[in-house]
């Protein structure tokens, strides 16, 4: 029986110091029928020299003449992949030697579109390591996986997910959703079949400054982009748009709270304004007020604010109900319009 080829794609930009470990982990897989596709997004460091040091015919190295953006680079990897199966490995993550073999073993029928595994979060600078694993079925429908993932009952990362290449391509590849593009592609692919889970940590997910503590306007608008993409009538996940919306609002709430706690007033104000548009109402406004409390003086003011709001609710219930309806458009078209205006 001929074993299927697997593409391990590593899009990279200016991470020569970390890239070496990612490439080594890909080449050292116990499953041998692989190609390692490195897509260099016009790095200005010695990325090319690092890749050329590997004398292995399974490596395919591409260097773009100019930076085309990371989403386009992801889609370039998917376009160039020669494997029947596809894994997008972050250039700062590391695969366990048995990762591909174990993930591939979960593909047992034509309906299987993706398999994924649990992770090990590690921080070399802090010397910390943590296994991130959740209880999940070893086999489930794509719809059940999507519901679980958007309810945060499934652990998932692109480096820990193996797809049928044709499924990702037919789903449209990586959508225009900023840093949430990999999640969008995952959801679109899983709409097409069943999903397998390996309850073993087979991927080392590196924690560092760029993926832990930075809450930026771009990371915030990425989740708005994910909402807009999922709610467009032609989207492959249009039927899951409500789940995507609620998931993104929850993530945005966390980002807003984090920005407030770190004293980043500009990002907090930006995120709060988006949340007011996406999820208007008394509950959201009260939550934003609470996030922004820096000391006891404001805490007292907040309590009076709550008191006044509750008084308004009970004294003018009919007016409040009407106002609430006006803040929540009834038609999908109106709701989408409001989101696109952010």
What's the end-to-end separation, in Å? 54 Å
Strand content: 15-25%
What's the overall average pLDDT, rounded?
87
Q: Count the E strands.
A: 10
What's the total helix number? Answer: 15
Share in helix: 40-55%
Q: How would you briefly describe this protein structure?
A:
It is built from 15 helices and ten strands. With 342 residues, the chain is an alpha/beta fold. A hairpin with a 4-residue loop joins strand 6 (112-123) and strand 7 (128-132).
SSE layout and pairing:
Blueprint: E1 6-12, H1 16-27, E2 34-40, H2 47-52, E3 59-63, H3 70-80, E4 85-88, E5 94-95, H4 99-104, E6 112-123, E7 128-132, E8 139-141, H5 142-150, E9 161-164, H6 165-170, H7 181-190, E10 194-206, H8 209-212, H9 217-231, H10 241-261, H11 265-278, H12 282-291, H13 296-315, H14 317-327, H15 332-340
Parallel strand pairs: 1-2, 1-4, 2-3, 6-10
Antiparallel strand pairs: 4-9, 5-10, 6-7, 6-9, 8-10
Helix pairs in contact: 9-10, 10-11, 12-13
Question: What does this 3D model show about the protein?
Answer:
- The chain is an alpha/beta fold.
- The protein has 15 helices and ten strands.
- Helix 1 links the parallel strand 1 and strand 2.
- The longest helix is centred in the C-terminal third of the chain and has 21 residues, at 241-261.
- It is globular.
- The chain starts with 5 loop residues before the first strand and ends with a helix.
């Amino acid at each position: 029986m001929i074993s299927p080829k697997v593409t391990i794609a590593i899009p990279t930009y200016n991470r020569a110091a970390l890239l070496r470990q990612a490439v080594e982990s890909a080449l050292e897989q116990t499953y041998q029928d692989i190609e390692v596709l490195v897509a260099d997004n016009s790095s200005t460091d010695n990325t090319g020299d690092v890749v050329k040091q590997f004398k292995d015919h399974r490596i395919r190295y591409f260097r773009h003449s100019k930076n085309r953006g990371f989403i386009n680079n992801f889609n370039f990897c998917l376009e160039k992949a020669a494997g029947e199966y596809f894994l997008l490995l972050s250039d700062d993550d590391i695969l366990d030697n048995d990762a591909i073999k174990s993930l591939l073993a979960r593909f047992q029928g034509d309906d299987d579109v993706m398999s994924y595994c649990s992770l090990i979060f590690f921080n070399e600078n802090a010397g910390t390591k943590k296994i991130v694993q959740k209880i999940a079925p070893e086999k489930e429908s794509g719809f059940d996986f999507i519901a679980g993932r958007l309810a945060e009952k499934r652990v998932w990362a692109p480096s820990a997910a193996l797809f049928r290449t044709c499924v990702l391509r037919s789903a449209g590849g990586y959508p225009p959703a900023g840093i949430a593009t990999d999640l969008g592609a995952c959801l679109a692919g899983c709409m097409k079949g069943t999903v397998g889970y390996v309850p073993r940590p087979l991927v080392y997910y590196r924690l560092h400054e760029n993926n832990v503590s930075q809450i930026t306007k771009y990371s915030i608008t990425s989740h708005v982009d994910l909402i807009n993409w999922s709610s467009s009538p032609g989207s492959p996940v249009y039927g899951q748009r409500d789940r995507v919306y609620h998931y993104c609002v929850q993530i945005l709430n966390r980002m807003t709270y984090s920005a407030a706690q770190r004293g980043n007033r500009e990002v907090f104000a930006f995120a709060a304004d988006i949340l007011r548009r996406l999820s208007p109402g008394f509950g959201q406004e009260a939550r934003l007020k609470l996030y922004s409390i820096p000391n006891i003086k404001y805490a007292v003011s907040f309590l009076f604010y709550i008191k006044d709001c509750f008084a308004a609710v009970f004294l003018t219930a009919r007016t409040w109900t009407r106002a609430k309806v006006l803040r929540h458009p009834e038609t999908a078209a109106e709701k989408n319009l409001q989101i696109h205006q952010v």
